[in-house]
Amino acid sequence: MAQLHAISSCSSSRISLLSSAQAEWPVRRKKISCVKRPCSFQEAGAVSSGFLGHLSIHHSLHQAPSSRTKAILNVLSSEKDGGLTSPGTTENGRGLRGQLKKVVLAYSGGLDTSVIVPWLRENYGCDVVCFTADVGQGDMEMEGLERKAKASGACQLVVKDLKEEFVRDFIFPCLRAGAVYERKYLLGTSMARPVIAKAMVDVAKEVGADAVAHGCTGKGNDQVRFELTFFALNPELNVVAPWREWDIKGREDAIEYAKKHNVPVPVSKKSIYSRDRNLWHLSHEGDILEDPANEPKKEMYMMTVDPEDAPNQPEYVEIGIVAGIPVSLNGKDLSPASLLSALNELGGQHGIGRVDMVENRLVGMKSRGVYETPGGTILYAAVRELESLTLDRETMQFKDTIALKYAELVYAGRWFDPLRESMDAFMENITKTTTGSVTLKLYKGSVTVVSRRSPSSLYREDISSFENGDIYNQADAAGFIRLYGLPTRVRSMLERGI
């Protein structure tokens, strides 16, 4: 169970509100929660901001004849034109775009999410609960979040430590499956989004929210990963995606909006790269990386030293594995998050885990990214190597085949898809005997396997030896080759008219 930390609370009152009339359903007066007074931010009601663009959120203010129909409308309502109410409406505490009671916002404390807080309140007349998930992004990114959230106008901050859950329930299943997207990408961001979105759904239930919001752009993969998780776990939640709705086009627009609404602009220096960090990896995009012909700058990397500057002496590490899941480092049992953290440190010191790739985004475009995954690279090498002892040929080949589909599902945000869950059950079953230890040598950016052991090893020295033995008679190979090569022999005979 993740640790929950809630800060302050939102005050609200009950008012009567008439839903906008739509042709397909009869409407009637219903009570919903609305902001009584804003949370130390601005006066009740909404003021004009100029950001009155098209609204495309999932909403459900129409009174459906059944709860089932209501749920369906919540999921599909974004396909309809218009919004919750007509733009500009401010009566009865509604925002410029409509009315929501309480919104849980995925919050980082940066400029974008700081601006989203007042935008939500202005446009939907709602309380905003900021939610931050600790997935190992580092103490610097977690610093001062309460102050930032309150200054932006949020009435509550909820922080959950998800590191152990993230590694145990999301990273390690992908590791066991051998899931790698497009030959290189170890799915660092792809695995983090569903665990965050899952926690947001939980928090929405805890605080009585009727909507969730995120700060993902309309060009990326993360919007899909967040929203498919919301759909899977609570299809009745409204979803707000400001970057697909507002007129803010970039950093300067966001700063201007923040100043207009008395939101302190975060003073941290704007990185020239777009980065995402968690316990599994650190990604870099943007700036010179947008041209695939450019070599990354040496100073860009943050988790790993340049392999050229790594120690001149190799370091050996032993990974203990039980049923396809890493459990120990150098003979010491560690929790999932602790094990990964320790390997990140070791791998980073030796320049392990750098990947530079051009990938195909889910939305259709190609993008270039550079990833640092030191601990993950070590673990992937260890688990795959142990499987060389414990899996037979047909099983290994089939596992590798469906691992490609597994990775594709995770990349596309379909973590809670029944297909991925079924594939995971298969992976869990066939790796029951993948237990043992693997020793690896870390040296100047490379990971080399030097030893592997398993009590369930299918390798038999008495069979594999070049010496003759009782189990394998080399003379038997002659008949096998004649039978195995029969199709080749028949084709050759046909071509020669024999």
Summary tags:
498 residues, 3 domains, alpha+beta, argininosuccinate synthase activity, five-stranded antiparallel β-sheet, Argininosuccinate synthetase, chain A, domain 2, Rossmann-like_a/b/a_fold, elongated, single chain
Please explain how this structure is put together:
With 498 residues, the chain is an alpha+beta fold. The protein has three domains: 3-270, Rossmann fold, CATH 3.40.50.620; 275-391 and 431-453, Argininosuccinate synthetase, chain A, domain 2, CATH 3.90.1260; 471-495, no CATH class. The chain is 36% helix and 19% strand. The protein has helices at 67-76, 111-124, 139-142, 145-152, 163-177, 188-207, 222-233, 251-260, 336-349, 374-390, 393-411, 418-430, 461-464, 476-484, 486-495; strands spanning 3-7, 12-18, 29-35, 102-106, 127-134, 156-161, 211-213, 238-240, 274-277, 282-285, 315-322, 325-329, 332-333, 354-360, 366-372, 436-443, 446-453. Strands 1-6-5-4-7-8 form a six-stranded mixed β-sheet, sandwiched between helices. Strands 13-12-11-16-17 form a five-stranded antiparallel β-sheet. A four-stranded antiparallel β-sheet has the order 9-10-15-14, with no helix packed on it. A hairpin with a 2-residue loop joins strand 12 (325-329) and strand 13 (332-333). The radius of gyration is 27 Å and the shape is elongated. It starts with a strand and ends with a helix. 40% of the residues are buried. Homotetramer. One of its GO terms (cellular component) is cytoplasm. Residues 102-264 form the Arginosuccinate synthase-like N-terminal domain. One of its GO terms (molecular function) is ATP binding.
